[in-house]
Amino acid sequence: GAVVSQHPSWVICKSGTSVKIECRSLDFQATTMFWYRQFPKQSLMLMATSNEGSKATYEQGVEKDKFLINHASLTLSTLTVTSAHPEDSSFYICSASPGTSGGTDTQYFGPGTRLTVL
Amino acid sequence: AQKITQTQPGMFVQEKEAVTLDCTYDTSDPSYGLFWYKQPSSGEMIFLIYQGSYDQQNATEGRYSLNFQKARKSANLVISASQLGDSAMYFCAMREGQAGNNRKLIWGLGTSLAVNP
What we know:
The complex is a heterodimer. Chain A is an all-beta fold. Chain A is 0% helix and 50% strand. In chain A, the strands form two sheets. In chain A, strands 2, 4, 5, 6, 9, 10 and 11 form a seven-stranded mixed β-sheet that branches. A four-stranded antiparallel β-sheet of chain A has the order 1-3-8-7, with no helix packed on it. In chain A, strand 5 and strand 6 (57-58) form a beta hairpin. The N and C termini of chain A lie far apart (37 Å). The mean pLDDT of chain A is 93. Chain B is built from no helices and twelve strands. The radius of gyration of chain B is 14 Å and the shape is globular. In chain B, strand 7 (60-61) and strand 8 form a beta hairpin. In chain B, the strands form three sheets. In chain B, strands 2, 5, 6, 10, 11 and 12 form a six-stranded mixed β-sheet that branches. Chain B has a four-stranded antiparallel β-sheet with strand order 3-9-8-7, with no helix packed on it. Chain B has strands at residues 4-5, 10-14, 19-21, 24-25, 32-39, 46-52, 60-61, 64-69, 74-79, 88-96, 106-107, 111-116. Chain A binds chain B through residues 31-32, 34, 38, 42-44, 46, 49, 51, 57, 91, 93, 95, 97, 99-100, 103-112, 114, and chain B through 33, 35, 37, 42-47, 50, 52, 91, 95, 99-105, 107-110.
C-alpha cells in the first residue's frame, strides 16, 4: 500500500516552454501533497505544500507564478514549470501522506521527474 | 542552527556487517516524529522507519532499527546484516509537532552508504 506515482519520469524541453508533472496517490486519498526539488548530491528542498481544493502554500524564495501547483482531486496534484529555463533543470519529486492513522503521517514519495531544459 | 544533523557524508561497510548512521536533531517541541528514508541511485525516496517522540520503545522494521536516545536528541539508524542493495543515500528527517496532514519535514543532508562485497 501507499504507492505514489509520478509522470513523466524524465522530460527534456526547450527553453521557454512549459512542463507539467503529475503526482498521483494510487491506493489512498491525500488531502495534502508536497513538491520537492533536489539538486545533485544534495538534500530535498521543499517547494510547496499542495492542498486539495485550495491554493498551494509556497516556501520562501519559490516563485508561485513560475511553479504552478494544482491539486485537482484527492489523488492528483500537478506541478507546472512555466517558461522553463536551463536553471530550472533539476530532479522534482512529490510526496503524499495517507493520513495520521497510527499516530504517524509518513510521507510516501513518487519516483521523481528529471527535468532538463535546453 | 541545523535542526537535523547527519555528520557522516559517506560511510563504508562490509557486506553482512552492521552499520550505524548518525542523526541528531534539535527541537523545543515535545511532540515530534523522526523518519529515515533511503534514496538509491534511481532517485526514488523509500520510507524505512519512523519513531515518535512519545514512543517508549525503539522502532524496528526488519533489518532496520532506530536507536532513539531522547535525552541526547539522537535517532541513529542501524542496518544489520548489510547487503549490496543497501548502497544508497540515507536521509534523516523530522516533523515538529503532532502528526498532521500539513506537517512539513525538516531534512538532513544525508549520508552516502557504500556496501563492499
